[in-house]
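Throughout our pipeline, every protein is held as a single compact record rather than as scattered files. Such a record has a labelled line for the sequence and another for the backbone structure tokens. The remainder of this section carries one protein's record, kept here as part of the documentation:
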Amino acid sequence: MIPDNPAAEQHREPQVPAAENTLRILSHLAGRPAPVAASAIARELALPRSTVYHLLTTLSAHGFVLHFREERRWGLGTSAFELAGGYARQQPLARLGRPLVAALSDQLGESAHVAVMSGGDVLYIVEERAPRRPALVTDVGVRLPAHLTASGRAMLAALPREQVRALYPSASAFPHRTGRGPRRPTELRELLREVRSRGYATEDSEVADGLRSVGAAVRDQAGWPVAAVAVTWADESLDERHLAEAVIDTAAVLESRLKR
């Protein structure tokens, strides 16, 4: 039934307080640049500490939050990130990204794509194939291990370090395709430091032999990496820095349009 006064309906007390408080906690964590203590959540949301702890425990059991025990803080988990990725895979990201990636591919004469994080994988949502170029394993709907791809590395480098540690806690979290790429958390941390210092991510024959990629992250208004733009090529004579600059520029345009 449609209420007689929709405006008044919106200001009524929530009928399911636990659901309301759960959403408030998730929104609060999403707006913070780093994990926060449960006591701070309770104080800033004016909620009883017992309520906050119970809800955090439930959210943690389902992967929506992570408990960093040594720091006694809580942050968003991979399930929350999956929800963000689900939205990102729909409009406006794919719609806005498709013409930009097409223009990037035309400009460079190489294949280009947009990907989003999905747990420890990247999921490709836009793919623009350049003519007369090598076949790629990437395509819309394809998933690849994030730590092996330029797109994934660009987004991982923009995530809080605690989030990366949660995704890659041990050597068992590092599948490989060609035998190349990081195989331990320490190797990944060093690689991501290089990405942050350089300003873009690279990949060389770690997804497919003979193919290289560069990628740059696309962030939302809170600074969270919602996607990455990348270009893949095989010609060793091409200038990586030139390709990277074009990818960075495209990612910046997509980022600005998403924030409008």
The mean pLDDT is 87. The longest helix spans residues 240-258. The longest strand covers residues 225-233.
